[in-house]
Amino acid sequence: MSVYVRIQSGIVAEIIAPMLDGSGVEIPIASRFYPLVAATLVDVTAYAVEPRPGWVATESSGAWAFSAPVPVALSGAQQAAVAFSAGIQIKSTATASLNGTYSIDTLSQSDIIAIETGLNAGKGFPDGSTMFNYPDASGIMHSFSEADFSNFAAAVRDYVYALRSAVAGISTSLPSPAATIP
Asked: What is the pLDDT of residues 134-155, one digit of tens each?
C-alpha cells in the first residue's frame, strides 16, 4: 500500500493514506486527485520511518529527506508556568499518608496561606479540629496535624518563591518540584 505526503513550505502538511476500492484493490493516487495535485505529492512508502505532519521536508536532486521538528525551547517564565500548573510533590518522612502532588495555583496558595496564618495566630484549623483534611491535586483528601500543615505550607512557600525567582530572572534554573517534609 502506498503512502504519500503533501508538503507545504518545506513542512509535511498532510499524510495521504492508501484508499481501497470495494474489492480491496488500492486506488492509484492519480485517480484520487487532480493531476496537478497528484504531481505535488511525495511517495514515502519506501521510507524506513514514515514522516508525520509538522516534520521538516527537504529535497535535493529529486530525493526527499524528512526530520522531526526541533522542540521549541521554553523560556524560564514558560517553564515556571508549566511547573505552577504541575504542582508540588510532597513526601513526608513522618506521615506517609501525606505523600502526593498538591496544587499551587493562586487559589490553592491563598487557601494554604489562610490556613497557616490561622495556625500561627493560635486559631487552629478552620473547622476547629486537631486534624484537617486538605486535598491533593487529584482531589484526594489528606489528614494533616497542625505541625504537618505548617511543614507543608513552608515547603509550598519555598517552592513558589523559587519559581517566582526563576520567572523574574533572579535564578537561572527551576527548583525541583519535589519536597520532603518531616
From this structure: 999 999 999 999 999 999 999 9
Q: Of 154, 155, 174, give the one whose Cα is nearest residue 164.
A: 174
Counting the structural domains of the chain, the total is 2
Q: Indicate the length of the chain as a whole number.
A: 182
Residue type, 96: A
Tell me the whole-structure pTM to 2 decimals: 0.64
pLDDT tens digits along 43-53: 999 999 889 99
Parent domain of 51? 4-67
Check if the beta carbon of residue 106 is closer than 8 Å to that of residue 84.
no
What is the residue type of 59?
E
Query: From residue 4, how far is each of 13, 19, 22, 30, 39 by CA, in Å?
Result: 11, 11, 21, 11, 11
| Rounded Cα–Cα distance for residues 133 and 141 (Å) | 6
CB contact set of 45 (below 8 Å; sequence gap of 6+): 1, 2, 3
Cα separation values, 118 from 113, 115, 141, 144, Å: 9, 5, 20, 14
Alpha helices in 29-90 (DSSP H): 29-32, 35-38, 76-86
Q: What is the pLDDT of residue 14?
A: 96
CA dist., res. 17 & res. 28, Å (int)? 11
Domain end marker among 43, 67, 91? 67
